[in-house]
Amino acid sequence: MIHIYHNILWSKYKGEVFSSLYNLSLEKRIDTSIIQIAKTSTDREGLSSVDLSYHRYPFKLLFNKTYDSISKLTLCFSLFKDVKNSKADLIVLPGYHLIEYWLMLLACVMTRKKRAVFVDSTRYDRPTSNFRAFFKRIFFSLNHGFFCYGQRSKEYLISLGVPPDKIIFRCQAAALPHSYRMEEVLRSRIQRNNMSVVPSYLYVGRLSQEKGLDTLIHAFKRIYQLTPSASLTIVGSGPLCAELRTHIASLGLTDAVRFTGGLDINQLADYYLNASCLILPSRSEPWGLVANEALSYGCPIIVSDRCGCAPDLIIDGKTGYVFQTDDVEDLYQKMLLIQQTLADATKVANDCINFIQNFTPVKAASQILDGCQAILSKTGRL
Hints:
By secondary structure, the protein is of the alpha/beta class. It folds into 2 domains: 2-173 and 360-377, Rossmann fold, CATH 3.40.50; 182-356, Glycogen Phosphorylase B (Rossmann fold), CATH 3.40.50. Helices cover 45% and strands 18% of the residues. Helix 1 (12-28) packs across helix 15.
């Protein structure tokens, strides 16, 4: 029996992965259960409500409220008790960075259950002190397996002393609209790009300091000076919204830069189809799921070298380009290269869509389930 814990029900992409995982578990007759800790979190509550249509599997919800509204004492007690009383042979923990996750690990150790943990971090996410690294090493040393996505995450685990044979490498997969049809998307992408030669750049994400939007804006200014018909669309919300608008006005880019606010995945479809490319200039980004979304619409991507997805999703000149973080000149040059790449809209769209088929919820679910079985099949203690 396998019990997988996840922090919030809000995540659509995890809903797709867990739905596929449930179906695969039924096919293979493996008893697998998903436990969602909370309904959503305060910062995501303002973006959109929970869409249960992406969670097509039975799940247990421990708290029908936002994660951050639950007291630490309640979280620690409830999660410790839930794991301790679980009849599962394997517990998959949602993370390692919160005290309640340590209590879940303790319950596993006390009851001699095998345990694994999801690890999304990379060494680029945020500075790690020796003090924190010490405790991470302790936490990791007490687990039988680790689920990571991407080369960067795997490298991070190895740097903290995790044996490579305990790491289950899984792909990262985005949730797409239920109406998504690959053939229709490909046809629409090719038609729109053959009709337009105007450079149109797109950013999707939170408007915050770590996203590197200042670098994008200054690189775009150089593009705009070269091609006054070029445009930049910024999708998202966040604490820097007003500051960014003021900065864009001071650069004389008000007519060329559009802010849309937050959009759901159905509304985003047209933006991905119309954009020359998606740009993700983040200074810190464990992965960057919007890159998966863009490629699914035949839209190439430019990402900073700090994005976790960079070594996995970028095939230089085919699916996009990587630029040096905070380097305006390098990003500007890559934005120019995208214009040359798009000369063959049909090839680019086909390359992007065909490549991202390696990163689907079904494949991610299969990798998780196979990893769980591998952990259970190993004998011996830590």
